[in-house]
Amino acid sequence: MEADKAFDKIQLLSLNGKLIQEVKGESINVGNVPSGVYLIQLIGQSGSAIQKVIIQ
Asked: Is the distance from CB of 55 to CB of 36 less than 8 angstroms?
């Protein structure tokens, strides 16, 4: 998964908010993550955004 803009950090969270994976940069590898529904949090200097994603 790649972000449209540069972000300082990307976090993959479970639906209950548990941190699954965190990377610095613009992309995250979810190849080793079990299928399911997760939250992606994009954190940058101008703020942050959270999006629900389905990993299959």
From this structure: yes
Q: How confident is the model at residue 2 (pLDDT cuts 50, 70, 90)?
A: low
CA atoms lying within 13 Å on the CB side of residue 21: 15
Distance, in Å, from the CA atom of 26 to the CA atom of 36, rounded to the nearest integer, reads 22
Rounded to the nearest 10 degrees, how much is the dihedral formed by the CA atoms of 36, 42, 43, 45? 180
**Residue 42: which of 4, 9, 2 has the closest Cα?**
9
pLDDT at 32: 92
